[in-house]
Amino acid sequence: MEADRSTVAAALLLLVGTTCCLWLLSWWRSSSGGSRSRNRLPPVVDSVPIVGGLLKFVKGPIVMLRQEYQRLGSVFTVNIVTRKITFLIGPDVSSHFYKAQESELSQKEVYQFNVPTFGPGVVFDVDYSVRMEQFRFFTEALKVSRLKTYVDYMVEEAQLFFSKWGDEGEVDLKEELERLIILTASRCLLGSEVRNQLFEDVSNLFHDLDNGMQPISVLFPYLPIPAHRRRDRARKELASVFAKIIGNRKSSGRSETDMLQVFIDSKYRATGRSTTEDEITGLLIAALFAGQHTSSITSTWTGAYLLTYKNYWDSAVEEQRNVMAKVGDKLDYDIVSEMDVLHRCMKEALRLHPPLIMLMRYCHKDFSVTTRDGVEYNIPAGHIVATSPAFANRLPHVFKDPDSFDPERFAPGREEDKAVPFSYTSFGGGRHGCLGETFGYMQVKTVWSILLRNFEMELVSPFPEIDWNAMVVGPKGKVMVRYKRKLLA
Ligand code: HEM
């Protein structure tokens, strides 16, 4: 009995002792460390349990980010159903996001929804080591010597396309540029067979693949809905189209100067094996998905700004005039590369409107970040970590007067994007920075060089709003433009 009583007393003592310790620990965490304590979790967005975060998020991610950034600062967590998404907003807290190794922050888990579109055996369906080899094929396909040829194709395509416009008229610039960008992308990436013989068929198949990527697909990529069924059918048909093209090239020994050829000729270093037809198809689809909407959206925003800010239109025209005074009406990679005014206008349009508004990683290993105010937060393994170029590109402590169109902010002497690494994130950065950045610049600048040299233009619809509901975010509705052919003298 005595022994029982002393056991109970000891247990009680242990319980009280433990409770006191825990209380003291939590008091110490919240007071002694105050805002500077170590291992502090990020604040959590207030919401109705389970679906609250999802509802806030679905209403508009940027609206939510704006509100919560005001309330909670640059690091906070949103509970979305069973997931915890921690946002890191701005260069002070996002450098680990961009620089971390795959074993710490990885893409595969969060970008899985691309797998049924790209197909098996490529990009997010393979281990990191294989993906790195496949990205090496991309790098090879997009190196400067190849870009020089692609720019020649871009010039040809754009000249042919605009030669079909009348002497004057009104067009939906957004639709026109979408059509032109898919033509040039087809020529440079998919090859002359698709561009010259199969363009309609392949475009229709890509259209079905594209429509198969709905917001719902991010959470449930295999949901048996008609859009997903059409996507899967299109993926299969594309595989057979490319199998024929690849077979023909191989049997005839013909070699072309396009991305398709680079993928055909690529070999994995680890095993020495060549790419399969299905992998080649998947990589081409991935390239088109990475580069088509992003470039066409950017060419439309660049135009909308040039047409709204007359002083920049005039400067861009003046730049073309100066270039032509030096080299005539020739356009190639080196000439386009030197167009700084146009470059800065495009870069500024992209700062204000990055088409990829949210980038994500899965956190495998705890890490900590310190905000500008010196607050340190611990981000635990298991969280999804996200950042938003669309929001971070407009932070007033990074970019002066951030909502205004001011391409000169990138000019020598100001270079606001360079003050702190990862300030300008329209192309991501660090370990997974965009591999097609120069291709994108070349494509948009080539198109606008030809327009500036050949037309007077006027925006006749209101300045476009942003279509936040799109997967790749661009201008909403039509962007109507009146044009008149006028050769630059
Ligand atoms: C204006 C045009 C473009 C924009 C705004 C853009 C934007 C981006 C962004 C933000 C990322 C980073 C994604 C992340 O960190 O999760 C990225 C990655 C990538 N982009 Fe682009 N992109 C453009 C054009 C292109 C083009 C034309 C291609 C290829 C033809 C391309 C190929 C890629 C690839 C392969 C990656 C993955 C890199 C990696 O994960 O290591 N992009 N792009």
Automatic annotation (TrEMBL):
Q: What class of enzyme is it?
A: oxidoreductase
* One term under GO cellular component: membrane
Q: What is its EC number?
A: 1.14.14.154
Query: From which organism does this entry originate?
Result: Selaginella moellendorffii (Spikemoss)
Which Pfam family is an annotated match for this chain, by its short name? p450
Q: Which Gene3D superfamilies match?
A: Cytochrome P450
Record-linked SUPFAM superfamilies: Cytochrome P450
Note whether Metal-binding occurs among the keywords.
Answer: yes
- Name the UniProt record assigns to this protein: sterol 14alpha-demethylase
Keyword terms: Heme, Iron, Lipid biosynthesis, Lipid metabolism, Membrane, Metal-binding, Methyltransferase, Monooxygenase, Oxidoreductase, Steroid biosynthesis, Steroid metabolism, Sterol biosynthesis, Sterol metabolism, Transferase
What gene is it encoded by? CYP51G1
Q: What reaction does this catalyse?
A: a 14alpha-methyl steroid + 3 reduced [NADPH--hemoprotein reductase] + 3 O2 = a Delta(14) steroid + formate + 3 oxidized [NADPH--hemoprotein reductase] + 4 H2O + 4 H(+)
Question: Under the GO molecular function aspect, what terms does this record hold?
Answer: heme binding; iron ion binding; methyltransferase activity; oxidoreductase activity; sterol 14-demethylase activity
Which residues of the sequence carry a binding annotation for heme? Answer: C434
Task: Kindly list the cofactors needed.
Answer: heme
- Topology class, membrane: Single-pass membrane protein
